[in-house]
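Lab notes, practical 5.
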Amino acid sequence: MDPITNAILGISFLVLGIAGTVLMYWLWGFPYDHEKFKSDAPRHLLLIHRSIGYLYVIVYLLLMWQMVPRLWSYQIEFPARTVIHLSLGILIGGILFLKVLVVRFFKHLESRFAPFFGTILMLSTLLLVGLSVPMAFKEYQLRRNVAGGDVFSEENILRIKRIVPEARFGIEVPLDQITTKESLMKGRAVLLNKCVQCHDLRTVLLKPRTPSNWVNIVSRMSERTVAEPIYEEEQWWVTAYLIALSPELEKGVRAKKENEKILHIEKIDSENNAGIKLPNKIRQQNYSISEAKSLFELKCSACHYLSNIENNPPGTDAEVQSLLTRMIGNGLDISDSELTQIAFYLSETYTR
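Output from the prediction step:
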């Protein structure tokens, strides 16, 4: 079951939890015979409340049937978010068990504990769904907002075809075939159905990566799969799809930094600059501006939109160096001569 289906189940789970709790509060407003353990509430409302309870348990079991087997195949240490998610799932199961015991076998405790159990179930369900559902829809939001309005748009496919040779696939990989709309759709299916065997979508969609990094990561992760294997051709598809999403991932990271008031142009310390060697007078380099521009567009569009630079251009040679330092720190694979050429283009185009 893919994350979107699980998200829909999660929302249904929450709706049932809220409906059941609100109805429970209403029913407990009617007189209750503590000797006969019988409420004077209308019978049809009691039946509706009972039906909601059954549906709630069924959805819970479906979600657990999906979640528990995946725990054994996780290839990473559980982050705090996953631990909380797991704890809430176990807590809900325990409370459901106690509530059934009270309602069925210990009715003398029902009036005292049933409302308490119902309230805790609703709050736990709210937290559980709040932790899991948003990330399932993030992939949908990313897919619908890339260049051209959709990850499968002609504009985005042309961008992928231009940069996918930078991914350093093996010579046996048919690059023209894995960058079609059909292949990207297959890649999305692999992401939503197989990659989540060992971790959640948040782990995959946390930050952008260069095309070559995606190739290495997908290859490494496929070797660790213990459930349903990710075959070689599927690795090609999902890698191409992740490359297609990378600019939107970078946009999310950028927005987070802006929210945290991290400046776009950061100071460079001597340690970070150790690997960046640029000529003292970048503009005096003998490069073709058109060729330098083409190289810049090829390398930089692999991870983010070119408009990111246009909207926040470097104003000095020092800022050019700072920008390129961060790009290399984020995984940009580039030779010294290419680096100098891009620096030449940025300085010639933007600096004062």
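Observations recorded by the TA: Residues 3-133 form one domain. DSSP finds 14 helices and two strands in the chain.
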